[in-house]
């Protein structure tokens, strides 16, 4: 009979649930909300999440100040009394409206009457400035038309776009290329890491002289920070003086040592090679834990029955190691699919986007272009892919992570 969790038991796990909600779920929810908006920090009209039209009071006040100052300075160049009177009336009108919003928040809701008043002010100002520029030689002839546009820009339209961001991403060729690069990098690197990691785990599991020293030194590549490792490999891949680039050329793996980082195929190969070198020890460590849980008596019994090493490996080791292999594959596949620092430091996604993964592309969109709306869409697509990968491993492979036998 399964005992239900009561109120007291729930209080024990409540702190953990709060930590998960704050540090894990909230960023995901926030990013998901961003996907429904054209949210750009480099655009004053889109630097927020606006379901309805808004009014940027700080921009309007700054614009009103400059227009009043420029027109006041140019009054000496206006000779016709009628035009001078229109300028003075406009200055008074702008100052009066600016004072209305002086003590209000930076961005506020705007009503239809207020929008009409501001729009009318913009039209009247633009018409007068255009007329004055044609008639007189104003000191701020070029500045006035440009600053006048900010009256209109102070009205912020709604940047809610719904599912348009997802529709754009599904037809974005760059997203498709980044997804292919990510899948290719993940499949190839994880495949070689599994093979090499399994071989290394079998070696580390043997009772040999200096076993502790060998296990410690084999983990050094994994212990090195990824950014540091990427810089190190960048130096070794240098087409002129890099050790690895010249070695690959000497053994005939590449035609020219400069091809490693300057061609699409060479750059992807270089990134995969560096990732396999760094992460194979991690894969071996996970598999080693599984190997040590296999009873030695099984191998002894198999040996007595006449089974060879290969038969013992395929009939005992692999079946009993399946849960550990699943865990290792799941962790490494998810980690490789989200690869960022290695690619960003080593190639920057180049040349020509040939090594640009989804995480690198989303970083460029969000922090390079300050487009957090579309960048969040790419992140959500990556989140869906990661979820599908996890479901594939856990469900389709039919392995239970808690299984011991």
Instruction: Kindly report the spatial arrangement of strands forming the biggest sheet.
Output: 2-1-3
The total beta strand count reads: 3
The major pleated sheet works out as: 3 strands, antiparallel
- CATH class group of the largest domain: Mainly Alpha
Average residue-wise pLDDT: 85
- Give the fraction of residues assigned to helices: 55-70%
CATH superfamily of the largest domain: MetI-like
Which stretches of 5+ consecutive residues score pLDDT under 50?
Answer: none
Query: What is the annotated CATH architecture of the largest domain?
Result: Orthogonal Bundle
Q: Which term fits the overall shape?
A: elongated
N-to-C CA distance: 24 Å
Strand residue content: under 5%
User: What's the structural domain tally?
Assistant: 2
Question: How does this structure look, described?
Answer:
The protein is mainly α. It has helices spanning 7-34, 57-73, 81-100, 112-135, 143-153, 164-170, 173-204, 211-218, 220-223, 226-236, 243-250, 259-262, 264-291, 296-304, 309-337, 341-346, 358-368, 372-396; strands spanning 54-56, 107-109, 155-156. A three-stranded antiparallel β-sheet has the order 2-1-3. The protein is elongated and about 115 Å long. The model has no long low-confidence stretch (mean pLDDT 85).
Task: Summarize the model shown.
The protein is mainly alpha-helical and 405 residues long. The chain is built from 18 helices and three strands.
């Amino acid at each position: 009979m399964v005992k239900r969790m009561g109120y007291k038991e729930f209080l024990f796990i409540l702190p953990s649930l709060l930590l998960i909600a704050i540090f894990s779920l909230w960023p995901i929810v926030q990013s998901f909300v961003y996907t429904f908006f054209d949210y750009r920090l480099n655009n004053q009209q889109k630097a927020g999440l606006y379901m309805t039209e808004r009014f940027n009071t700080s921009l309007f006040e700054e614009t009103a100040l400059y227009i009043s100052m420029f027109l006041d300075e140019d009054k000496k160049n206006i000779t016709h009394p009628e035009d001078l009177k229109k300028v003075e009336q406009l200055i008074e009108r702008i100052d009066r409206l600016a004072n209305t919003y002086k003590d209000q928040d930076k961005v506020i809701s705007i009503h239809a009457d207020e929008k009409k008043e501001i729009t009318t002010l913009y039209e009247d100002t633009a018409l007068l400035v255009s007329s004055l520029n044609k008639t007189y030689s104003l000191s701020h002839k070029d500045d006035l038309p440009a600053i006048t546009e900010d009256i209109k820009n102070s009205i912020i339209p709604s940047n809610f776009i719904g599912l348009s961001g997802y529709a754009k991403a599904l037809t974005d060729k760059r997203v498709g290329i980044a997804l292919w690069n990510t899948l290719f990098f993940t499949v190839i690197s994880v495949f070689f890491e599994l093979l090499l990691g399994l071989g290394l785990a079998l070696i580390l599991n043997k009772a040999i002289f200096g076993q502790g020293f060998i296990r410690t030194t084999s983990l050094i590549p994994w212990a090195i920070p990824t950014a540091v490792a990427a810089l190190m490999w960048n130096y070794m891949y240098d087409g002129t003086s890099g050790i690895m680039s010249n070695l690959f050329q000497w053994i005939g793996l590449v035609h020219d040592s400069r091809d490693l980082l300057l061609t699409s195929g060479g750059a992807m190969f270089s990134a995969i090679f560096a990732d396999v070198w760094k992460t194979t020890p991690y894969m071996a460590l996970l598999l080693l834990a599984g190997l040590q849980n296999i009873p030695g008596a099984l191998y002894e019994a198999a040996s007595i029955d006449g089974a060879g090493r290969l038969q013992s490996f395929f009939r005992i080791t692999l079946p009993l190691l399946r849960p550990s292999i699943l865990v290792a594959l799941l962790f490494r596949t998810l980690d490789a699919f989200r690869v960022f620092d290695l690619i960003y430091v080593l190639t920057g996604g180049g040349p020509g986007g040939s090594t640009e993964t989804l995480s690198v592309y989303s970083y460029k969109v969000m922090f390079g272009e300050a487009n957090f709306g579309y960048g969040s869409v790419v992140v959500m697509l990556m989140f869906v892919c990661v979820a599908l990968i996890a479901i594939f491993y856990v469900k389709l492979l039919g392995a239970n992570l808690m299984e011991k036998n």
